[in-house]
């Protein structure tokens, strides 16, 4: 194609611009101004500079107090839960979900979450909407004790619809090498302590939407008696953030390992921290899953095994502690307002057992 051809092309009489292509830089700048207040609330003493730089700065000299500091990192998103947030026009809760998914992966090894960054991808920048998302992320960071040191808002017209968006985040934490938690510490006879989830958290929403919205035809605005609120409010309940509770537990009681119950369910995630030769046995009769899990199962005729490998079934975090530390651990968690209970134990692995398994029937 020649230059003359370009000159004679349709619309050649109007100059092209970034805004004409669908990217609104001024809206992006306004979104940054709106979110600054919330980001400031997450500030830790080690953070240098403010929002707007090319990189977030964290003073690593704070790590000099460690003999051998190990950095732990994690990244995650919120999954298809963002679809429900968009449908309901509620944008400040999924930030809690994002932080929980990241920092509670970090704390599993005993690391203290230090800082996070976020990435928000939108079809069109609506400044107030972006600011609401960041507000939720900042509030989650405050609950986790970590700083939000930076992020990116990307506008992708043509790739995403005007109301479409997605979020992702990454975090970094630190743990002293000789305090690292994990399979090497677990022993036969250890106690498995379960910590209650706040609901579905951020996993399994493709199944939940398929069952409740597509197959059962339920409306997000419908009041559900078992929830004492609407279906949408139940499904958007933010992920519980356990990091500060877990860190407090490591300072008060002996802890061998944590397991963050996310995609794959309780047994699969627990098996990830159980060493070869040992077996985690969790007794279903020690708790009753919340009504949302029962609703998904009944509305979609979903078999229990399928539910358990997709949803958390009411348990968001597991702590594995020596039997002698169980009472101390439960007392501390209760004092911190965490619903927790003894759910099982670590045994020798039999010839036909896997790393973790659920036994018995759920309490009614």
Automatic annotation (TrEMBL):
Claim: ATP-binding is one of the keywords in the record: yes
GO annotation (BP), single: 'de novo' IMP biosynthetic process
Enzyme class: ligase
Enzyme Commission code(s) on record: 6.3.3.1
Predominant cellular place of this UniProt entry's protein: cytoplasm
Domain PurM-like C-terminal residues, every copy: 188-352
Localization in the cell: Cytoplasm
Catalysis performed (reactions): 2-formamido-N(1)-(5-O-phospho-beta-D-ribosyl)acetamidine + ATP = 5-amino-1-(5-phospho-beta-D-ribosyl)imidazole + ADP + phosphate + H(+)
Annotated GO MF terms: ATP binding; phosphoribosylamine-glycine ligase activity; phosphoribosylformylglycinamidine cyclo-ligase activity
UniProt GO cellular component terms: cytosol
Pathway where this protein functions: Purine metabolism; IMP biosynthesis via de novo pathway; 5-amino-1-(5-phospho-D-ribosyl)imidazole from N(2)-formyl-N(1)-(5-phospho-D-ribosyl)glycinamide: step 2/2
Pfam families: AIRS (PF00586), AIRS_C (PF02769)
InterPro entries in alphabetical order: PurM-like_C_dom, PurM-like_C_sf, PurM-like_N, PurM-like_N_sf, PurM_cligase
PurM-like N-terminal domain span: 67-175
Keywords of this entry: ATP-binding, Cytoplasm, Ligase, Nucleotide-binding, Purine biosynthesis
Family: Belongs to the AIR synthase family.
NCBIfam families xref list: purM
Record-linked HAMAP family: AIRS (MF_00741)
Protein name per Swiss-Prot or TrEMBL: Phosphoribosylformylglycinamidine cyclo-ligase
Native source organism of the sequence: Streptomyces jumonjinensis
UniProt gene name: purM
